[in-house]
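Thread: START-like domain-containing protein, structure

OP (GT): Posting the sequence first so everyone is looking at the same thing. Length is 128 residues per the record. Can we get the structure tokens written out before standup tomorrow? I want them in the notebook alongside the other entries.
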Amino acid sequence: MEDKIKYEMEFPIHVSPSLLYQYISTPSGMSEWYADNVNSRGEFFTFIWEGSEEKAKLLSKKSPERIKFKWLEDAETDYYFELRIQVDEITKDVSLMVTDFAEEDEVDEGKMLWENMISNLKQILGSS
């Protein structure tokens, strides 16, 4: 299997970190922008898109800063995806930092997917 490449993206979002955290860390919040439906049972989350399901394990969670998941299909690897809220100490600007992995020929596609999903999230939050 080809090694995946780690990539990070930053999305400025004009909303309070605590509100943003609700949308990145709860099944109901993630169902509004990340997947069609999200269910959780303990540390396991099921993400549903147009009938297909992907399961992930919650690796870590720190309120109101970050949440980190590992897809179960990547269980034997170091791959994960993380959503981290970053607040600039001086300006108080809020950004959502996304860390993810993709195969070399799929990085651009992965980034576009995140851009679309974060755009949906911004619309829901009323953030430009």
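GT: Both are above now. Quick notes for whoever picks this up: The chain has a mean pLDDT of 95. The CA atoms of residues 39 and 46 lie 5 Å apart.
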